[in-house]
Amino acid sequence: MSFAELGLSSKVLAAVAASGYTVPTPIQAQAIPHVLQRRDVLGIAQTGTGKTAAFVLPMLTLLEKGRARARMPRTLILEPTRELAAQVEENFARYGANSGLSVALLIGGVSFGDQDAKITRGVDVLIATPGRLLDHFERGKLLLTGVELLVIDEADRMLDMGFIPDIERICKLVPFTRQTLFFTATMPPEIQRVTEQFLHTPIQVEASRPATAATTITQALVHTRSHPADKRETLRHLIRSAENLKNAIIFCNRKTEVALLHKSLVRHGFAAVALHGDMDQRSRMAALESFRNGEMTLLVASDVAARGLDIPDVSHVFNFDVPIHADDYVHRIGRTGRAGRSGWAFTLAAPTDKKHVAAIETLIGNAIPWTGDPLPVEEGEEEAPRRGARPRRREEPKGRDREPARGGRKEARPAPKDAEPARPPRERPEAHKPASEPKRPHRHREEPDEPAVIGLGDHVPSFLLQPVRRKARSPA
DNA sequence: AAAAAAC
């Protein structure tokens, strides 16, 4: 099977060839001929299956006939996130370089002016996130009555994000006679209902993931305590000791944690950038670009980056937090091991994450192996000998002597918020110690921006490099 | 429980 057999125009075929592709992916082979015949298509496919090109290429071919009119886009593509929308735009730029088509990207976080000007001139392809699209529409600057083809991408994710009402509204604003291409990775009942409502006798095409997670992605769970400072330390050691680490995406559950971790990693000398939805759009784009082009090797991200992002060469994924939704786990680790490459996915798991880990293992159908030893903290987890003593509960290390009593040792802390008292200057972490470094009997609870402790602390990754050696109780 | 997306 070759692209030439699918009915694409010579211009498009030339652009595909220039990009170095010769063989269509299954979803492309199945969908493209139907799109060209102007059928509605229901594509059940994840990213990484070549789904984007499955609609971009035939759209380019179809759009060669006809011309855009002012304020009346001919085609409309809806994406759940700004980054995905921008990614689709890049696909049009790549494959449509010689087509002379005008493409506009309507996403939030950037000024209306340029977007408006483009729409007014007339665009062949409008790529949008729902909020900004409706905003333009409500301002009366955009007419959707000329849309011949509508693409709804990542529909199940739109559902997760509460976009379905917007999608339904938009579907009613475009002509009934339009062609609709609808892509989703899963088919929950709500999505089923939407497809029945808005697709006309669709051709259903399905593409399984190019390679299952099990075959190309090596997964592992890593024991950690649940306090962020402990996790950051564990992560640093994990990154430093990872083999074949080319670059990595590090996922956190919260935007605040993304920001903190990013700052901490930079402080520790890592080439890291952050990506989350509270950042301004310019920074988001810049971060993604610097990670894509290899300038930065670590991308600390919220789940905004969990799905769909096409960065073909990510060697590692680290889950700094265990994702709360099991399916997010699958999406996150799917950022590595792409295009037939090998990938590694490490998930930091604290005893408190047990439940979520179990849900993930149920979903993926097998147990994720642990790397190294369980931490001693797990023993007697429920006993919580000292927990009540502190005003704000946090995950205290359970072993005795971990957290010295107030005023007991040099670690005594004046302020509740971990404000560190003056401490002898410590060595920078870049000169981190080999695993044979003798462990400290007491623990440090370092503030994110504090220089790191010498050595590993008694609690950290003996498991990474050492043979099984249960931690001795700290000498009293 | 949190993320994303509109100002």
In short:
This protein has 476 residues and is α/β, with parallel strands linked by helices. It is built from 16 helices and 14 strands. Residues 210-214 and 376-476 have low confidence and may be disordered.
What does this structure look like?
By secondary structure, the chain is α/β, with parallel strands linked by helices. It has 2 domains: about 200 residues, P-loop containing nucleotide triphosphate hydrolases (Rossmann fold); about 230 residues, Rossmann fold. The chain contains 16 helices and 14 strands. The protein has a 7-stranded parallel sheet, with helices on both faces. Strands 10-11-9-12-13-8-14 form a 7-stranded parallel sheet, with helices on both faces. It starts with 9 loop residues before the first helix and ends in an 11-residue tail after the last helix. The C terminus is likely disordered. The protein binds one DNA strand of 7 nucleotides through helix 6. Belongs to the DEAD box helicase family. It comes from Labrys wisconsinensis. Keywords: ATP-binding, Helicase, Hydrolase, Nucleotide-binding.
- Highest-level CATH class of the largest domain: Alpha Beta
Q: How many distinct helices?
A: 16
* CATH overall fold name of the largest domain: Rossmann fold
Q: Main β-sheet: number of strands, strand sense, barrel status?
A: 7 strands, parallel
Percent of residues in helices: 25-40%
Distance between the termini: 71 Å
The Cα radius of gyration reads: 26 Å
Looking at CATH, the homologous superfamily of the largest domain is: P-loop containing nucleotide triphosphate hydrolases
Integer tally of domains: 2
In the CATH hierarchy, the architecture of the largest domain is 3-Layer(aba) Sandwich
- What is the N-to-C order of secondary-structure elements (H for helix, E for strand)? HHEHEHEHEHEHHEHEHEHEHEHEEHEHEH
Mean pLDDT score: 80
Q: Characterize the overall form.
A: globular
Tell me the structural class.
alpha/beta
